[in-house]
Design brief:
Cathepsin D, subunit A, domain 1, alpha+beta, single chain, globular, 36% strand
Length: 149
């Protein structure tokens, strides 16, 4: 997977469009569906902001994700892992992604998506979400199946 267009500037401007700040503090009270996102950047990537928490500490952040239906796993960037106070050694760790306990992976260093957070099919499948991309309005909607949430 390559996401060379997902620079810090692009992610900050997408957060501004979504009405949040990049890696701003969050709480579990902010977890709800549907998730409203945007198609953003030169390649119109589908982006949504989710609340991500440290599994074992009382830390949660608003995390901007690129939705990637070709990635089987969910990845967090070094900047996100640092903000959540995870160490630098582990390549996978337990986290709470928008209320879902799951294993997340460190975005591979030196790869072309090291700075991006990637929402993979593991999260979409396990949470039974539907994703709608509307290129006419540049909007993204992520809807929870009523049986799963």
């Amino acid at each position: 997977m390559t996401l060379p267009d997902m620079t810090a500037d692009v992610m900050h401007s997408a957060c501004a469009r979504l009405g949040t700040s990049f890696l701003a503090d969050a709480s579990s009270a902010e977890i709800s569906y549907p998730l409203e996102g945007v198609l953003h950047g030169i390649y119109r990537r589908p982006l949504v902001s989710c609340v991500v928490g440290h599994k074992h500490r009382q830390i949660a952040k608003h995390v901007l994700f690129v939705i990637d239906s070709t990635s089987p796993f969910t990845y967090l960037s070094d900047a996100t892992l640092e903000a959540l106070e995870y160490g630098t050694m582990a390549n996978c760790m337990p986290a709470v992604v928008h209320g879902k306990n799951m294993t997340v992976y460190r975005a591979p260093r030196g790869k072309q998506f090291a700075d991006a957070n990637v929402m993979g099919t593991d999260f979409l499948r396990d949470t039974q979400l539907s994703v709608t991309l509307d290129y006419a309005t540049l909007r993204v909607e992520v809807i929870a199946n009523a049986r799963a949430v």
